[in-house]
Amino acid sequence: MINIIKGDCIEQMKLLEENSVDAIVTDPPYGLEFMGKQWDKFGKGKNIA
User: Fold this and answer.
1) Residue 28, C-beta contacts closer than 8 angstroms, at least 6 positions apart
2) Full-prediction pTM beyond 0.70?
3) Which of 10, 11, 17, 49 falls between 20 and 30 A from 3, CA-CA?
4) Tens-place pLDDT, residues 1-49
5) What are the φ/ψ torsions at residue 42 (nearest 5 degrees)?
6) How many domains is the chain partitioned into structurally?
7) Terminal CA-to-CA distance of the chain, rounded, Å?
8) C-alpha distances in angstroms, 9 versus 5, 12, 14, 33, 44?
9) What is the Cα–Cα distance from 34 to 21, expressed in whole angstroms?
10) In 3D, which of 4, 2, 1, 48 has the Cα closest to residue 28?
């Protein structure tokens, strides 16, 4: 079963039952403007998709 949960991750994770999650897929975190694009680099200029 796939569930999509929208909301503040800290608050939403508090509502999950223990040992009930197999995987979490997220977008890059918000609020990284202070790093420019440094967070978007994977090693020697390779993009991983």
Assistant:
1) 39, 40
2) no
3) 49
4) 788 888 888 898 899 999 988 887 776 666 666 666 665 555 555 555 5
5) -120, 90
6) 1
7) 24
8) 9, 5, 9, 20, 31
9) 32
10) 48
CA distance 45 to 26: 22
Q: Measure the CA–CA gap between 12 and 5, rounded to whole angstroms.
A: 8
**Domain carrying residue 18:** 1-49
- The residue behind tokens 């979490």 is 24
What contacts 26, CB < 8 A, 6 or more positions away?
9
Tokens of 8: 């503040």
